[in-house]
Amino acid sequence: MAIEKIHRGIYRITVPFDTTGTVFLYALRGDRIALVDTGVADSPKTVLQQALSEIDLSLADVSAVLNTHAHLDHIGGNLQAKRASNARIHVHSADLPMAQSVEAEVEFHTRPLRILEFPPEAIQERAAHVRKNAGESAGGGCRAVRWRRYRLGGRGEASRDPLSRPHAGSRRVLVGGGGCPPDGRRRPGVRVSAGRLSPLS
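The structure assignment produced for this chain is given below.
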């Protein structure tokens, strides 16, 4: 089973990445539906659509994509998800260049290899890996927002954790019923950080 209910209105979707990895995405269900991240390029077609159907939803029901950060395993499916749903894609302004350009993502992943003087074959292999998994960029479909709270309707909402900053542009997303405040106070719910989950207390 690719989808698992982990909290009221919160579902974890397990998505394979490359040959040995796993990425966790989340579906948030209130009066509106949001996805936290979209996986790699083929994730919407190969995993997300089927996973959402298990909870009587489809990609067409998604109204927003909330990206934790712009690495290819978290934003690679943005364009496919947008095409299937017309969802608004929310990214941090520091991540906008990579969210709007696959070549910016390639540069991000190959620059360290060039600096460390890796062989050209290794750099080309890494670039091909990035292009395959990053897919097509959602381009202008991504909005740089300094969102603090995304209301799902009913009692559900997601908010950006103002205390988190694992790396530039990365944000944890707090999810809960009745509100996850931008002031950092903890209320019942969960914290999603680049696919990892931990309870709020």
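Interim note for the steering committee: The chain has one domain: 3-200. The longest strand covers residues 21-29.
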